[in-house]
Amino acid sequence: MMWIKQIFLGFIGLASGSAISAGVFSFIISIGVVPRIIGKSRTAADIIVYENAVILGGVAGNILSLFSVQIPFGIWLVIAFGLSAGIFTGCLAVALAEILNTFPIMFRRFGIKEGLSWMLFFMALGKAVGALYFYANHMQKM
Asked: pTM for this one?
């Protein structure tokens, strides 16, 4: 009788995880992060590579998170992952803000007509410095 409960819970977990991951992937695609990166890098011929990278990244992230897999590459892999995840999160945030027209509305309300690229650069720099400060302090407490 106990095995029926375990099978049922496993099915519910698999179905729920599939639904959530489908929602996350469709959100990423719908706001245009991946197509914009492909367009900016002029690598449209490699679209299959991008699709596979997104899928494999999601699967690998789930496996690492779910099973607490230890990766033996040390601090260099942590730095590479942090940099990659930060760049992707920044692209995601800017794409979402762009869809919601956040920046054009903010710049128009503040009367900013020149230096928009510098404003975006310093906003990104502030986000990066803040994240580094947070994680440096958080890691010391562990």
From this structure: 0.48
The per-residue b/e assignment along 34-63, b for 16 or more CB within 10 angstroms, e otherwise, is: beeebeeeeeeeeeeebeeebeeeeeeeee
Please give the single-letter amino acid code of residue 82: G
**Which residues 6+ apart lie within 8 Å of 77 measured at CB?**
71
Q: pLDDT tier at 100 (50, 70, 90 boundaries)?
A: low
Cα distance between residue 27 and residue 34, in whole Å: 11
In the chain, what are the helix, strand and coil shares in percent, each to the nearest 5?
85, 0, 15
- Mind giving me the DSSP string for 24-36? HHHHHHHTTHHHH
Distance in angstroms (rounded) separating the CA atoms of residues 42 and 26: 22
